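In this section we turn from sequence analysis to structure. A common task in structural bioinformatics is to predict how a protein folds when a small molecule is present, because the ligand can shape the pocket around it. The inputs are simple: the amino acid sequence and a SMILES string for the ligand, here molybdenum atom. Study the lines below before reading on.
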Amino acid sequence: MSSKPSGRRRFLKGGTAALAGFTVGAIQPADAQAPGTPAPHAHPASGGKDVVAYGERSRFVTTVRKPDREARTPFGVDQLHALTPLQDQQGIITPSSLHFVAAHGGMDIPDIDPREHRLMIHGMVDRPLVFTMEELKRFPSVSRIYYVECNGNQPGRRHKTVQESHGKTSCSEWTGVPLALLLKEAGVKQGAKFILSEAADGVKSNKSLPLAKAMADTIVAYAQNGEPVRPQQGFPLRLLPPGFEGQDNIKWLHRIEVVDQVYVTYNEISRVTTNPKTPKSPWFTVFEQGPKSVITSPSGGQQLQGRGMYEITGLAWSGGGAIRRVEVSVDGGRTWKDATVDGPAHRMAHTRFHYQWKWDGQAAELQSRCTDELNQVQPTRAAFRKFWGFAPDDPSESGAGLGHVNYIQPWRVAPDGSVLNGLA
Ligand SMILES: Nc1nc2c(c(=O)[nH]1)N[C@H]1C(S)=C(S)[C@@H](COP(=O)(O)O)O[C@H]1N2
Ligand SMILES: [Mo]
């Protein structure tokens, strides 16, 4: 990375000194509430709430996120996990209200006034910079559809539904500034290799990210599905390094330090390096997630209403790029047929697949497996366990430090039409 100012157009000149005058040209918000605005319009199907000012879904639609665990880390800090109801989702965009949540920095979601919020970029840079939200919004923006997945999204025999086994992944359209623009503005010094991002949350959550990823396609996102990022997702600002492990997406982002090495941060110390069962831990070296898919319907806990035609549908995604192929097996992985993959298959995004299936009323086992644009194929559970060195008699399904757990999820259909976790 060159430290010389490039010939590229500079958006901010002279670093922080120039920022004082920078807000003068900021665009003021349009008047939101004109005088004489009519009274709120309530609708019975919304439980009497005003549905004009901000829409509510019908009261007959009740699907919700589910808490995963309210555990304490070895440091005694509460963590909050909420799971996306993938079984009820259509298409590829997760409604913002149902996006999964992971927060290890205390049970309280930070309540940040965007007018007070600042992003600082410093460390191995020529010009340390501090940005207000208004200033960030004056940079050229991009909007991209990207999934996020927590590495704790690990299938296991105890899970009854796809929400429990796979609900720690969601997909949104994210809008923000390419981080490369901000880093070029600051001027990255020779020898820099990583960035260290830090949050304005209770424990100042932080995480290292390779500089190459920061310069490639990482977004500093302020919007999600057309509106400001939700508080649970990092309002007013979060890091979005597409296809990388969920924990690399620092939410409530307020500081980026450009550094020359990977740092051992809060999450690694408290949740991974303390696990003695992780000799092959990919932490600090592997960030990108492999190809993964799951059938969301029919899935665990659902009930087929007699033999006949059913649509098998689900989601596939990969940190390696776009999904090229999804295959479905209805006989426990003995034979495979190509599913229809909905296009356009966005890179590092949930991709919807469909397969028309005629159920004969016999016991069946449904599986999906995907292939991405790098020709990486989703592994079987046996291959995954072999790679990580689980002995055949070791009952463990997963564990901290394994990295991305992406093996095939089987769903068993019983002759009575009930659908059960095939791992159980
Ligand atoms: N500040 C902060 N950022 C964070 C976390 C956190 O606890 N605090 N959790 C990380 C983890 S482990 C995951 S999986 C993702 C989840 O993003 P989401 O909550 O928007 O789905 O956020 C990451 N960013
Ligand atoms: Mo996570």
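Confidence is low (pLDDT under 50) at residues 1-9, 11-24, 273-279. As an exercise, try to locate the residues that line the molybdenum atom site and compare them with your own expectations.
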